[in-house]
Amino acid sequence: MIQRIQTIFLLIAAILMAVTVFSPLAILEGASRIVTFYPYGTIEAGNMAYTTWGVIVFTCLAVLLPLINVFLYKKRRMQIKICSLTILVIVLFYVTMYAYIYSIMAKNGLSLEGVKYGIILPAIALIFIVLASVNIKKDERLIQSLNRIR
């Protein structure tokens, strides 16, 4: 299980998404207001201003799916499907994040001051998920070719 490179890729992706849960994603600024956007909500002056349930749900799913996928090492076709689902979840994470950011900006007259390091972590996790999927497919082709020889 741990000897396969795709297991390492999946674990790295899960760790990156777990770090994303607590990482700042963006800074919004307005008339003497600074709001920090996290996956679980926005923080203004040390207080929670808005909760962002959609973003945190997709973030938690993107943490759990690769971890589940690690333990399905005997079911390679199922692993490929879960990798595809994880890619979709990470894309939906970005879509909901941008929807929340622009909604909060429109409601409060804020502007996007800058993005933080947390915004790149899911993209790196996405790359590792794709690498894991490619290696799982390679293993599946190898097993199928060995079955043809018998």
Please tell me about this protein's structure.
With 150 residues, the protein is α+β, with helices and mostly antiparallel strands. The protein has a single domain, classed as Butyryl-CoA Dehydrogenase, subunit A, domain 3 (Up-down Bundle), CATH 1.20.140.150. Helices cover 65% and strands 17% of the residues. The chain has four helices and five strands; from the N terminus they run αββββααβα. The protein has helices spanning 5-21, 53-70, 76-108, 121-149; strands at residues 26-30, 33-38, 41-44, 47-51, 111-115. The protein has a five-stranded antiparallel beta sheet. The longest helix has 33 residues, at 76-108. The protein starts with a helix and ends with a helix. The mean pLDDT is 89.
Which key features would you list for this structure?
150 residues; 5 strands; alpha+beta; elongated; Butyryl-CoA Dehydrogenase, subunit A, domain 3; single chain
Mean pLDDT: 89
Level-2 CATH architecture: Up-down Bundle
Could you give the order of strands across the largest sheet?
4-3-2-1-5
Low-pLDDT residue spans: none
What distance lies between the first and last C-alpha atoms, to the nearest angstrom?
24 Å
Q: How many domain modules? A: 1
CATH topology: Butyryl-CoA Dehydrogenase, subunit A, domain 3
Number of helices: 4
Q: Give the topology string: H per helix, E per strand.
A: HEEEEHHEH
Name of the CATH class:
Mainly Alpha
Gross morphology:
elongated
Q: Strand share of the residues?
A: 15-25%
The number of distinct β-strands equals 5
Biggest β-sheet strands, sense, barrel: 5 strands, antiparallel
